[in-house]
Amino acid sequence: MSLLIVNAGSSSLELRVLSDEDELLDEKDVSEWDGSPDPLDAMAGDAVVHRVVHGGERFDGAALVDDEVEAAIEELVPLAPLHQPRALELIRHTRSGDRPVVACFDTSYHRTIPASAATYALPGSWRERFGLRKYGFHGLSHAYVARQVPVPRLVSAHLGAGASLCAIADGRSVDTTMGFTPLDGLVMATRSGSVDPGLLLWLQTSGGLDAQEIGDALEHESGLLGLSGSADLREVLAGVEKGDDASRLGYDVYVHRLVGEIARMAAALGGLDAIAFTGGVGEHSAALREDVVGRLGWLGAVEVRVVEAREDLTMATQARSVLVKQSS
Predict the structure, then answer these.
(1) Is 106 considered catalytic here?
(2) What residues pair up with 47 in beta bridges, in sequence order?
(3) What CATH number does the domain containing 97 carry?
(4) For 90, 168, 241, 314, which has the most beta carbons within 10 A of its beta carbon?
(5) Domain hosting residue 53, numbered range
């Protein structure tokens, strides 16, 4: 059975058609995607497999999409507003055809994170009522990295427009930098990463900003863009070379947070055997990798790997398992 793998980002779309032996039969990348489902219609595949960013507490693995699963995905839109709506629209589009549709969730890989790392120090009534916990994201990517670098203690660094780290112990996620939503953790292209919650409360109570303004700024106007004026690390590095102060600040903050969070992941693992860089930035910015690894020398001898991001292969494996169960 061939699979059409659909990976919808906030502004990009990656399509892959894989044979039953994971041979790449066709591919299409739309870098400036407007949300239209049209690119899917020209792609083959006996079944369609979608990446879904947030699976909440319900989904601990891939699921065959029916009306109930689709409704559950829709309920989680507020927790991943950049990605979930677009994935949902594509799911609905492909469900209108006659091919089975499978959803694979970025959060499911992190279900093995222990309570000590996943629990927020908030009132128990809140945690129970609202399902407040660290969910983690980029799980499909981190799971693939874990298979490619099978060491006991691994930090997977998925660095792209969105960015997160995962502490992986013997193939299992035991901590990660993103939390209840994909806003948490590292500095990203346009997302802030971790921010003092008291600062956000102050902006509402004393700064006069409403929740919508704050949310939009945290998602779209912060991160590297807010620091340096550009969301593209290549442009930031070029600015650093030219002596631009804003570019220097943006890069230094980005690296400072990244190095500190890698150290925190190493602490969760009780040491570190390897760091694996993946994602557009992680794979292609040798300068960044050199700067980050150079500041982590105190961790001792650590293998450094670059792994091509292949969420599609993780999704294909999960989808075939679901489809086999459905047909038996």
Answers:
(1) yes
(2) 3
(3) 3.30.420.40
(4) 168
(5) 3-105
